[in-house]
Amino acid sequence: MDAKELLKRYANGETTFINARLNGVNLFDADLIGIGLDQANLSNAILTFTYLNQAILNNANLTRANLRGANLTQAKLQNANLHDADLHGATLQSADLRNANLTLAHLQDANLMGADLRGSDLSIANLTGACLRGANLREEKRVCSTTLKGANLHKADLRGANLTGANLANTNLSGANLSEAMLHGVDLSGANLSGAILQNATLTETNLEGANLNSANLINARLAKANFNEAELIGANLHGAIMPQATLIKAKMNRANLSFARLSKVNLTRADLTEADLTEAEFIDAILAMTDLTNANLTKANLLRAEISTTNLTGANLDDAVMPDGTSGY
Q: What is the gyration radius of the CA atoms in the chain, in angstroms?
């Protein structure tokens, strides 16, 4: 079937074209709202600025298709193959992309607000500047896990997104907005989160080993049992963060703001907290073996029962701090 025949039949009221062979077809700027293209072959198709609102494209082959600026609002793309597809600036608001293959897809500045991406594979996809506000990327019962390994989400809008259990290892999230996002149990090992906004985000039991969180905003973030081993948090803002039982072994936290943070039972073995602001931070039962707190501000910090026998406190301010034995600091 060619473009002319498809458009003619659609204009005459026919909307369902299951298994249609349309590879390489040119449907630039076409109005195909609500069309049914289940299992269609649209590989290498030109769908630039095409109106595919509410279209049904489940199991469709859209590999290397050009969908720049296309409107796919509320479209159904379950199990669709969008490998290496160009979706730059496309609108996929509230689209159903469950289990879709989006590997190597170009999604720069795409609108994915409220999209369902559970079980989709976004490995090495480019999502620079994309809006994923309120998108659903959570893993369900360890069955359908969203994969974003190696994806580029630089400055992406992920406010309030649900990424529970997703694989974001080595992902570029520098400057991304993840405020109030749900990141419980997410694999962010080796990820670049420098300058990212994670205010009020939930990262409980999240793996951030070796991640770059320099200058990140983690104000009031929930980080219980999170793994920050060998992560970089230089200049990060963790004011009021709740992170009991988190592990920060060999973490670099120079000049980080941890004022009023809750760090009970954390493991900061060999962590670097030089010049960090730890004003009124809570370190009850914390492990600070060989931790470097040179010139750190521990004013009114609570170190009750903390292990500090090998801690470097050179030049640290311990005014009114509660020491491990319950006595007052200097």
A: 24
